[in-house]
Amino acid sequence: MKEDLMEIICCPLDKHDLDLEVTERDDGEILSGELVCTECSETFPIEDGIPNLLPPDMRDEAPA
Amino acid sequence: MGEEPSDAADAGGDGDRPSLADQRGVESVYQPAEDSDLLARTARERVGAGDTVLDVGTGSGYVAARLAEAGARAVGVDVSPLACREAAGNGVPVVRGDLVEPFRADAFDLVAFNPPYLPTPPEKEWDDWMEHALSGGEDGRRLVDPFLETVERVLAPGGEALVLVSSLTDPDAVRAYASDHGLASERVASEKHPYEVLVVLRFSAE
């Protein structure tokens, strides 16, 4: 993801702002890291450049 | 029993359409078809350069990519990790998420949604990502209803949502449901196909 995506995303649970913690960055693209809600502290992973903002109870729900 | 073209057979209760299994083929991410194309064309006429737009259930990223070509800042969201990967591979900024939940209030000038809309009896559901991409549940509105309940929050003032529905999904029922949730609606495009009429409905705050 690009950093400017932060302007339009929020915590899916309480709609508060997210803090971006970058683990790996490549040429302006954030490849891995975490998004942390500034209100409820829920943590959302960024994997392979894609932020996973599913609520935790849907995160592991994977059709076979 | 007379001979009928096989594609008109209706033994399985799916209506006059090929079964979901036939449609899904071997793919696990929904690939753009007539419905995506009608939604993309309709949305493209309505977006301006610099508009921020969201493509809900982006799948391969097709609608978002078409809107980006028109100069919009287009973002996709999908619940499927496979779809997210494919959309990202097609150059679409994408978020894995549930409908409009992970987006800020007033963020979008236009939200486009091509939902899974095929009415599907429970015993015919497939528990995989392609089933999720095609099946609208028993009434075809499994994801349309929650979308209509939540989309207004993310629309900028004057913003609009465009939803592709089928005659199989009862567009009038969809509009009545939207009205109950404070959304005005109008029909902005339609196209006749062999098994259904595809309709694009526009929703905005009342």
UniProtKB/TrEMBL annotation, chain A:
InterPro entries: Trm112-like. It comes from the Archaea. This is Trm112p-like protein.
TrEMBL record, chain B:
InterPro entries: DNA_methylase_N6_adenine_CS, Euk-Arch_PrmC-MTase, Methyltransf_25, PrmC-related, SAM-dependent_MTases_sf. GO terms for cellular component: eRF1 methyltransferase complex. Pfam families: Methyltransf_25. PROSITE patterns: N6_MTASE. GO terms for biological process: methylation. Keywords: Methyltransferase, S-adenosyl-L-methionine, Transferase. Residues 1-43 are annotated as: Disordered. Belongs to the eukaryotic/archaeal PrmC-related family. This is Methyltransferase. It comes from Haloarcula taiwanensis.
